[in-house]
TrEMBL record:
Annotated compartments: Membrane
Keywords for this protein: Membrane, Transmembrane, Transmembrane helix
Protein's organism: Amphimedon queenslandica (Sponge)
EC number(s) recorded for this UniProt protein: 3.3.2.2
Protein name: lysoplasmalogenase
Residue ranges crossing the lipid bilayer per the database entry: 38-57, 69-86, 106-125, 132-152, 158-180, 192-215, 227-249, 261-279
One Gene Ontology cellular component annotation held by this UniProt entry: membrane
One family name in Pfam for this protein: YhhN
Length: 283
C-alpha cells in the first residue's frame, strides 16, 4: 500500500515477503502491490501539481470569476476526493487504520472538515478580497489543524517545551510585526474597519497557534509524520504571511498576482493531509 512506499523510501532495510512465506530483500524481489501504489501516489501528486499550475498559469489573471474560482478550488477539491477515497475504501495510507489498528479516525474527520472549510474560504475570498466569512472559514480550518497537532504533541511534551516553543512563535510574530508595523498601520487605516481588524487578528492568532502546535508535535514525537505536519504548518504560516506582505509590497515580483501565496498554500495542504494519513496508519 502507499504507506509501504513511504516507509521503504525512509528505511535502509526494506524487505518484501515472498510467496513461500520467507523474506526477500528489496534488491531481489518485486512487489506488485507496492508498484501499483507507487504509481497511484505519483499519479495523484502529478494531477495535484497540474491543477495547481493550471490555476497559477491561467486562473490567477482570468477575467471570468467563475473560471477563476473553479480553477482555484480544483486542487483542494481533488485532494479532498483522494483523501476521502483513501480512507473510505481502506486502501493505501489508510489500510491499517480501517482495519482498526488505531483509534484516530477522528483525526481524519477533523482534517476533512478543515480542508472543506479551506475550500469555502477560497471561494469566499475569491468573490470578495476581504471577506469576513472567508477569513473565519480559514480560522476554523486552523483551529481544527491545531487540535490535531496539539492532541498528539501535548501528551508527551514537558511544560518547558510548551512554553519555549510558544515564546519562539510569539517572538517570530512580534519580529514580523515590528519590521512592517509602519506600512501595516497605513494599510489597515486605508482598507480595514475595526470589525475586519478583529477578524484578521483572530485569524493570525489561529495560524500562529497552528504553527506552535505543529512545532510541539515534531519536537515531542520526531517522526516522519510529525515532520510532514511541521512542513505543512510552516508553509501555511508563510502563505498567510505572503498575503499580508502582498498588500504592502504589491508591486514586488515575488508577491505579484499572489503566486507565492497559492504555491505555498497548495503544498501546505498536501503535507498536512499526508501527515494525518500517516498518523492513521500508525507510522
Amino acid at each position: 500500500m502507499i504507506i509501504h512506499v513511504i516507509k521503504n523510501l525512509f528505511s535502509e532495510n526494506s524487505q518484501f515477503e515472498n510467496s513461500s512465506g520467507g523474506e526477500e530483500s528489496i534488491g531481489g524481489g518485486f512487489d506488485l502491490d507496492l508498484t501499483l501504489d507507487m504509481i497511484l501516489l505519483v499519479a495523484f501528486v502529478l494531477l495535484y501539481l497540474l491543477l495547481a499550475i493550471l490555476y497559477l498559469w491561467v486562473g490567477v489573471n482570468h477575467d471570468k470569476i467563475q473560471i477563476k474560482l473553479t480553477l482555484k478550488c480544483l486542487p483542494l477539491i481533488s485532494l479532498i476526493l483522494w483523501y476521502t477515497i483513501q480512507w473510505s475504501i481502506g486502501v493505501g495510507l489508510c489500510e491499517e487504520a480501517v482495519r482498526g489498528t488505531r483509534g484516530e479516525s477522528w483525526y481524519f474527520y477533523l482534517t476533512l472538515f478543515a480542508l472543506i472549510a479551506s475550500v469555502i474560504g477560497d471561494a469566499l475570498l475569491n468573490i470578495r478580497v476581504v471577506s469576513p466569512l472567508g477569513i473565519i472559514s480559514f480560522g476554523i480550518a486552523q483551529i481544527l489543524f491545531s487540535i490535531i497537532f496539539g492532541a498528539q504533541g501535548f501528551p508527551g511534551s514537558t511544560w518547558l517545551e510548551v512554553i519555549l516553543l510558544l515564546l519562539l512563535v510569539a517572538g517570530i510574530c512580534l519580529g514580523i510585526f515590528l519590521a512592517i508595523r509602519q506600512k501595516l498601520n497605513a494599510l489597515f487605516k486605508e482598507h480595514f474597519n475595526i470589525g475586519i481588524l478583529v477578524i484578521v487578528g483572530f485569524y493570525f492568532s489561529m495560524i500562529a497557534t497552528m504553527l506552535w502546535t505543529a512545532l510541539l508535535l515534531h519536537v515531542t514525537v520526531g517522526t516522519l509524520q510529525s515532520f510532514f505536519g511541521l512542513v505543512g504548518g510552516a508553509l501555511f504560516f508563510i502563505s498567510d504571511l505572503c498575503i499580508l506582505l502582498s498588500g504592502i509590497y504589491s508591486s514586488h515580483w515575488f508577491f505579484k498576482n499572489r503566486i507565492s501565496v497559492m504555491t505555498t498554500y497548495y503544498i501546505a495542504q498536501f503535507f498536512i493531509s499526508i501527515s494525518v494519513l500517516l498518523l492513521c496508519s500508525d507510522f
